[in-house]
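Bug: token stream looks shifted between consecutive jobs. Job 1:
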Amino acid sequence: MNNSVGNTARLLGAGLRALIVLTVLCGVLYPLAVTGAAQALFPDKANGSEIEDGGRVVGSALIGQRYDLPLRKGQETPAPDLKWFQPRPSNGLGTNVINTRYKLILSGATNLAGDSGAKKTDGGKKEVCDPEAKEGLCAQVLAARNAVIKDNSTAGHTVRPADIPADAVTSSGSGLDPHISPKYAKLQVHRVAERNGLDVASVTKLVEDNTDERILGFIGEPRVNVLKLNIDLRHLAADKG
């Protein structure tokens, strides 16, 4: 009996010591070491890739954000503020009660199939978006396409459906993509220039200056960070004013 109690006490003691040692190593020393190394080697990335403007943090280079007008009475979602470059659509997880549109509370894709809202043609051999679809991916894409044409056409420049890139009418897998394609950014140039009283050439140069090329020359696609672009746009408009 005494041996049994003694063995149990030794096992409990060994387990407690292992718990304390592993807690200190894995719960204290290792996190401190990783945090210290990250702060020493990659302080910007370790702190969330924050972007500052005018001495204050205005966002993160990794998280997209919207540029909307104040929500009006009766509106479910605010209208875009068209003096700014606009990001990709932010459908999140589609139509749900907590769709937060570029807010970190929720992240996700629409989970809609490519033929959602499509109809079959040519004897059932082909599928095309049904222009009368009221819901589904096709309805979202067509609504986004019409909005892009309407919002970005100006008195001297008409946007055609063929001019619209895919990222202008579809959300990203996370719904938080901070980038748009250079083609989508340039599509918005005429509208942004008109709304801010700027010339098209200077706004086009802003887009070119904010275009990041492929990583190492072959990874990914050229992209434009919308937040950084709009910060430069604000400074350009302020200098002109």
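Job 2, same session, no restart:
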Amino acid sequence: MDLNQKQLEILKIAEKLFAKNGFEGTSVRDIALAANINVAMINYYFESKENLLETIVKQGAEAYKLIPDTYIHEEDPLLRLERIIEHYISSNLANRYVYEILANENTIQKRIINSQIYTELRKHNIQLIKEVIEYGCEKGVFRYYDPILIHTTMIGTLMNFKRNRIIFEELLTLPPGCDFEEYLHETLTTHLKFTLKSILKNENQ
């Protein structure tokens, strides 16, 4: 679906409201007010609030998909793993509200298509992680470890920080001018690389 600039602006505003207030807690009027447009324009572009949400979910799922072309050129399994982690952190922070919407939609499973999109996204990413682990095992660099647990470690680590941002901002006492999102990007990327390498690395290496 090709989207014009106004549609993209509406999507950004809607995803922020959906993430903050939930789908049920956000009205089309709320979105129109925040976007400084009339309700008719949203209906014209997206027909309904449900279609608006579906568009957000589809767009977000594509952004989170692991793409082999971003790491397949690396012969070293450790570098392939690093490229995957970098993609995950970058895509998540660049689409900061979408993953919360995806997770919420999957939890309630009220809108089947959104739940299916989220499930297919996870299957896709877990399969590619599995292939990288198997590649590392073939090279004698990795020991085999459940790709579902590796995937869960990546998701859980970042989501814990994002959902408890207020607490961590206080505990971390970041220096003045240090942006929390930038901190997450740099620090969690380094942390996940260290953690997952420690889990996967063959003890004989």
